[in-house]
Amino acid sequence: MAAENQTDPVAWKDGTPVSSRFDDPYFSLAGGLAETRHVFHAGNDLPARFRDGFRIAELGFGTGLNLVATVLAWQRAGATGRFSYTSFEAFPMPPDDMEAALAAFPEAREAASPLLDAWRAGRRAFAFGPAEVTVVVGDARETLPRWSGLADAWFLDGFSPAKNPELWDEGLMAEVARHTAPGGSFATYTAAGFVRRGLASAGFRVERVKGYGSKRHMSRGILGEAQ
After folding, report:
1. By CB atoms within 10 Å of each CB, which of 30, 72, 111, 159 scores lowest?
2. Do residues 39 and 218 touch, judged by C-beta distance below 8 A?
């Protein structure tokens, strides 16, 4: 399992943070905030499903952009109450790099102070507006099976399956399903065949739909619906 001090060295290419470990960008060169809204929000039918006590889980915390975007979406939708956001991350991004990455999106950076303050203080469980956030540090293949929670919606946002296949294997997709509430959903930017097959085998009805920007396809699905 990755230790807390095992961060992911960040290389900057044309203003975009790229994982030195996986040689993959943290967000779309075409606009990471818009991509989050297209893939993870629309892909999970959010904000229409928001309600008090809603539970989101994520593979790959990265820059924290998905979290910030979700807090903004909740607030703009006028949703009441609170939601939980649990993210599984093997190699946390250093705070200075996280702040620099979020600065690419002024709307997100303006809202991100609670996240950045907690991150600099080494806190991995904290309140952020309406969100109760927990970032579980370590290899998700070890940490997710031990998690006692369920998610109503999953953001599957690990690095590319070609670069980071262990985060997309059939066993881990089965754990995602096992930790999904009945009728819960997932969304991901990837349409890789082995990922879709793994999620389908785990019990999701998987759809391949239009991706963000120049990406032709992405995947989404609902647990427990007939094929």
Report:
1. 30
2. yes
